[in-house]
Amino acid sequence: MELFPPIPLAEWRDTKETLHRFAQIVGKIRLAASTQRNHWWNVPLHLTGRGTTTRPMGQVDGNPIFTIDFDFVAHRLVVSALDGRQVSFPLAGQSVASFYRAVMDSLALLDVRVRLAVPRPFDLPDSARPYAEDTEHSAYDPVQANRYWRVLSQVASVLEEFAAEYSGKVSPVHHFWHTFDIAHSRFSVRQVEQPRKTDPVTREAYSREVISFGFWFGDDAFPEPAFYSYTAPEPARLAEETLEPAAARWLDRGGSHLAVLPYDEVRTGSDPRSAVLAFYESAYRAGARRAGWEIERMACPGGVTDPHQDQGAHRSGDTSG
């Protein structure tokens, strides 16, 4: 299978905009029915062998344990309860409004009662329109939806490899439904004192120094898929640091900077995986150097923290000595 297949925004914009809203509906159910984790780690979606999942949720709120899965192979949404009951329906042919109704009806059939605090899109142009009234977004191309999932899965694999090289506090590799990107973050132990006026979501997300790494599919503001990284809070003179490979650059976001590596520059190269890993490592070292992190002490070569461990044996599964 081709690594990093082409996925130009113009080719699947309509499907992307519909899927984004589908994901927000499911993500907001996850938010309502799960136990809060630090930095909102309970909220994002995760990759499966056929699509994305909420992972099990419920019980703490009085509901049965249940999951919601997007299947981008059979192109269905699957709602499952721990007792084995399951409801599913096709993703194709759904508007956001009909999808929203079908999801809520499926939950009711499984005796799950969930109320979305804000049943409208988050940070999208139609954020004032309830999901139940959105008949505009109804495009679903199965080929494009499957490609979206394959790209997510391939990026996730590279992020997992990169994540193994740091022994400090790290996030899972997860798919954010609000911004429709996939990301992984490294944290320092230092707490960030934020202005009192900062909203609660941002305060929790950025309560510690963090360097994040990810990939997005493009939007109106930046209409091309790209790998990215940022450091928060941003240390002084960060954009003076060198990024790798040569196609990477710092993007000025009006007072802060985003490290960006265009997807198409990578996918057509001789070794896309190594190029992405080099980009993430250079962005990490740029932020960590400027912010004064202990880079070498927190290194975790090959995912091993024990300095006496034979990394080759560890990778092969042979730890007999």
Describe this structure in words.
With 321 residues, the chain is of the alpha+beta class. The chain is built from 7 helices and 11 strands. A 6-stranded antiparallel β-sheet has the order 6-7-8-9-11-10. Strands 1-2-3-4-5 form a 5-stranded antiparallel β-sheet. Strand 1 (46-47) and strand 2 form a beta hairpin. The longest helix is centred in the N-terminal third of the chain and has 25 residues, at 9-33. It is globular. It starts with 8 loop residues before the first helix and ends in a 5-residue tail after the last helix.
Question: What topology does this entry show?
Answer:
Blueprint lengths: L8 H25 L12 E2 L3 E3 L12 E6 L4 E6 L4 E5 L5 H14 L32 H22 L10 E3 L4 E11 L8 H6 L2 E9 L9 E7 L16 E4 L4 E6 H5 L4 H20 L19 H6 L5
Antiparallel strand pairs: 1-2, 2-3, 3-4, 4-5, 6-7, 7-8, 8-9, 9-11, 10-11
Helix content: 25-40%
Through-space gap between termini: 37 Å
Apparent shape = globular
- For the largest beta sheet, what order do the strands appear in spatially? 6-7-8-9-11-10
Largest β-sheet summary: 6 strands, antiparallel
